[in-house]
């Protein structure tokens, strides 16, 4: 499942490959982008987004999109187009992990994932709390002089840079101070055209402050796409799907087995949230903390030791299932 990625799905491939957790020789793997992801490459089917939708629903007029909207579309494609009748596991990092949570309950006929299925949420809670950091970068973008209430004619650089600068302070654990290290370069939000290779900006990362790196990274985004994804993220709450806002009841009703992996130093989603969630799952949830200084970025495949730990835990979870 896709996380807040934008302009493509390159962020997905770190979990997929021979002898990796998602081995194509063992599993039929389907990767979805979120609505509003704004893919720009002709090699990918574009997700409906503010940036690629014609009038009258273009830009700021694009309708609000929920996680449920995404899951309904994904379910329809799997069952009606691909003819899939059973799902082994739904797995995702960050916003992808929240989609995995939704998959465990987001269908009119009770649970999307029965006892025989599983879901894995990496560095993500079942609900986005009102105190989540997203209002900060969002406000910085909305207040910029060149955003023009979403009616900009060119990239609103002031707003996007402000968004990236505020966002950068939350991405890592506070202990991450050696920004010129190879790990720092690998964790940047700029993906090379060639998977596995550093982009030019990453190779010269030591010349830039971390906030500048994130500013540059977000400049490839469309601002309205960003805000639309922020809305999906901020309104994420699995308990509103079928249990009237009762999160405990919602989690208790999950039938599928779940692997919940927060990072000890994640400033987005502290592990205490997941610890409480798993307690409601009646033994269906497995809680494993990633012991890393890299905060939320521990789950993005950029840190080798964290990546190996996650891969090993996912493989073990599949074997136990």
From TrEMBL:
<keyword id="KW-0378">Hydrolase</keyword>
<protein>
    <submittedName>
        <fullName>Putative alpha beta hydrolase fold protein</fullName>
    </submittedName>
</protein>
<dbReference type="GO" id="GO:0016747">
    <property type="term" value="F:acyltransferase activity, transferring groups other than amino-acyl groups"/>
</dbReference>
<dbReference type="InterPro" id="IPR029058">
    <property type="entry name" value="AB_hydrolase_fold"/>
</dbReference>
<dbReference type="InterPro" id="IPR008220">
    <property type="entry name" value="HAT_MetX-like"/>
</dbReference>
<dbReference type="GO" id="GO:0016787">
    <property type="term" value="F:hydrolase activity"/>
</dbReference>
């Amino acid at each position: 499942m896709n996380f807040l990625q934008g302009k493509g799905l390159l962020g997905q491939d770190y979990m997929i490959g021979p002898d990796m957790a998602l081995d194509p020789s063992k599993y039929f793997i389907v990767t979805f982008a979120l609505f509003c992801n704004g893919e720009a490459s002709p090699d990918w089917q574009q997700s409906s987004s503010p940036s690629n939708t014609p009038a009258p629903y273009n830009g700021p007029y694009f309708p609000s999109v929920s996680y449920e909207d995404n899951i309904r579309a994904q379910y329809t494609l799997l069952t009606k187009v691909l003819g899939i009748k059973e799902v082994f596991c739904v797995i995702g990092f960050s916003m992808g992990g929240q989609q995995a949570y939704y998959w465990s309950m987001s269908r009119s006929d009770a649970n999307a994932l029965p006892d025989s299925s599983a879901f894995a949420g990496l560095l993500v809670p079942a609900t986005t709390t009102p105190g989540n950091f997203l209002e900060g970068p969002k406000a910085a973008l909305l207040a910029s002089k060149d955003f023009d209430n979403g009616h900009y004619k060119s990239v609103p650089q002031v707003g996007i840079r402000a968004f990236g600068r505020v966002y950068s302070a939350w991405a890592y654990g506070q202990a991450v101070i050696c920004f010129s290290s190879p790990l720092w370069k690998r964790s940047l939000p700029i993906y090379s055209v060639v998977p596995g290779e550093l982009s030019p900006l990453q190779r010269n990362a030591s010349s830039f402050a971390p906030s500048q790196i994130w500013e540059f990274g977000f400049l490839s985004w469309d601002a309205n796409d960003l805000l639309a994804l922020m809305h999906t993220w901020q309104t994420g709450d699995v308990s509103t799907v079928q249990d009237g806002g009762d999160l405990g009841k919602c989690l208790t009703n999950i039938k599928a087995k779940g692997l919940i992996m927060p990072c000890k130093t994640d400033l987005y989603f502290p592990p205490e949230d997941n610890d409480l969630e798993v307690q409601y799952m009646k033994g269906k949830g497995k809680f494993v903390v990633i012991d890393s200084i890299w905060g939320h970025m521990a789950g993005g495949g950029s840190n080798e030791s964290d990546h190996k730990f996650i891969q090993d835990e996912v493989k073990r979870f599949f074997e136990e299932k």
